[in-house]
Write a structure and sequence with these properties.
Order of helices and strands: HEHEH
Number of strands: 2
Distance between the termini: 32 Å
Number of helices: 3
Oligomer: single chain
Largest sheet: 2 strands, parallel
Strand content: 15-25%
Amino acid sequence: METLFSDTRVKVIIDGALKFVEKEGSTETCDLIFVGFPGPTDDSLSRLYSKEFYLMLRNILAKDGMAVIQSGGYLTTGQKNHHRYFRSCWIKNPGFLSA
């Protein structure tokens, strides 16, 4: 049985999200991007929860691509800003929250 990881169309990258979008932004586009964030608990994570990050992410996404963002914790002020920035960078945002 073929698995996701053996499919030649799939490229799994485990790296820092910011490092990835800065490096890959000039060389390739992605059909699907999954980003797993820690909760926005301190200033060192603030660049991930920014409009600039989401614009860079959008630039590497294929025209009909999809980005999935996972972040932990409850809806803190930082996460509310995170959702607002994300919405401002995409026309379509069928986002949802789940516990």
